[in-house]
Specification:
Elements: H1 10-18, H2 22-31, H3 38-46, E1 49-55, E2 61-67, E3 74-77, E4 80-85, H4 93-100, E5 103-110, E6 115-126, E7 140-152, H5 196-206
């Protein structure tokens, strides 16, 4: 059976043959698609977080958590996802990697009803994307053109219950609180000139 989506290499095939899973692997590959189907669309647009994998200029992987309110990742069509980049620690590990290597993997997990979905594709950072105005305090938008979309076995996903939403997710009509690490005296001088924490810190010093 020829490979359709995955280009299985000799490493993959070593384990397929060692544990007699070649038939299973090829069958799963037949169920892998480039497109976001109805199940994947619903899963992605209900998610309030995902894990993002990128690679740096050395070929070394970086894995980050991205969170927001449900719907912060949008399915624009059956080959395109979009999500915002919010303020972080200023290192831009993942986003900087995308300017060197656009290949990405996104892992969506539902811990309350154990299931997971993996998306692979090519990402584009768009500083002036038309969606930017629809995300409060977003710095820019990342669009992902999907190349592989498939469900992963959920057997080993531990069941967890979400207790609360992060108060730091930017929301329209709500002042975003300032994270405590920015207010530490050794960090304040390092912040961007327009960071609200600078003004907050100066006001606290006057009190």
């Amino acid at each position: 059976m020829p490979d359709r989506i995955h280009d299985y290499h000799e490493g993959n095939r070593f384990f397929h043959d060692r544990f007699d899973t070649r038939r299973l692997a090829d069958a799963w590959d037949e169920r892998t698609t480039e497109f976001v189907d109805d199940f994947a669309r619903g899963f992605i647009q209900a998610a309030d977080f995902f894990f993002l994998a990128t690679c740096d200029h050395r070929g070394l992987p970086t894995l980050n958590y991205k969170g927001g309110d449900p719907g912060f990742v949008r399915v624009l069509d059956d080959r395109t996802l979009a999500f915002p980049n919010y303020d972080g620690n200023g290192r831009y590990h993942s986003m900087g990697n995308l300017l060197k290597n656009p290949n990405v993997a996104l892992l969506f997990i539902d811990f309350e009803n154990p299931r997971r979905l993996k998306v692979q594709g090519a990402a584009e950072v768009r500083l002036d994307d038309e969606l930017l105005s629809e995300y409060t305090e977003a710095q820019f938008i990342v669009r992902v053109t999907t190349t592989e979309v498939f469900r992963n076995c959920p057997r080993y996903i531990h069941k967890y219950q979400r207790l609360d939403n992060s108060p730091f997710v930017p929301r329209e009509g709500c002042e975003t609180p300032i994270t405590s690490w920015k207010l530490q005296p050794n960090n304040l001088p390092l912040l961007p000139a327009n960071d609200p924490a600078r003004t907050h810190g100066k006001n606290a010093e006057r009190q």
